Amino acid sequence: KMSLYFISVTEHEVTKGVLNTDAAQKSKTFCFRRVLNDINIEDEKAARYVDMRGKTRDLEAKEMISHLRDNKVTEAYTSADLDSHMFSYDVQWSQAKGGGIDLANEQHRKYVQRFCDDFCQVLTDSIINGIQESLVEEDEVYEEAVRHCSFCRAKCEKFIGRDDILDDVVSKVMSDIGKPSHPLVIQGESGCGKTSIMAKVAMRIKNLVGGD
After folding, report:
1. Contact 88/82 with Cβ under 8 angstroms?
2. Which of 25, 51, 125, 190 lies most in the core, judged by the most C-beta atoms within 10 Å?
3. Cβ(86)–Cβ(80) below 8 Å
4. 148-192 confidence digits (pLDDT tens)
């Protein structure tokens, strides 16, 4: 806990999200690592990119973030995962007026474009993989059971009355649970509601016995 007073919020989040997590979760994390070389500390924009103490660079913070970026995070991934989970970009500080990242600079434009392309590709692939992992393998029996359940619910939604018939059927079915029984036949003219009665009976019995 003492380390929380000496590290940045970013390092704390990286530690929880990447360093202190299992392999399955770590496989879903990605690191985009940018190194901005030859930073002009006297430039007014320098403080947007590095930690400063007054007009000088905070060397302690520089050392800590370098260690996090170049050692801790890199070592968190296996050598096989580095190429697909770690993306590195080395960029020179713009010496033009205003400094920093300058889209008028061709090298910087290429860097920004490459970063955007990499990020979008990683995000797209992650979403597609997540969808594929969540898909249930096609099962004809399962699909048929789902259709029956959906049909049953639809029949029950508009069912009204016939409590006497429902009570008789449910009582018969419940009394036969756990012992030999005879078939129960419900007959009637076409369109009189036999299917709806069976759907309502199934719903009532489910509520009585519980479970799925």
Report:
1. no
2. 51
3. no
4. 777 777 777 667 777 777 777 777 777 767 676 677 777 777 777
Cα 163 from Cα 204, distance rounded (Å):
11
Separation between Cα atoms, residue 103 and residue 194, nearest integer Å: 73
Q: Element (H or E) spanning 194, and its range?
A: helix 194-209
Q: Which residue has the tokens 């205003």?
A: 98
Question: What is the value of pTM for the model shown?
Answer: 0.55
Q: Going along 81-153, which residue ranges are E strands?
A: 86-92
- Cα angle 15, 75, 36; round to 5: 80
In this structure, the number of other CB atoms found within 10 A of the CB of residue 3 comes to 9
Determine contact, residues 99/49, Cβ cutoff 8 Å: no
| Residue pair 32/91 in contact by the 8 Å Cβ criterion | no
Amino acid letter, residue 124: T
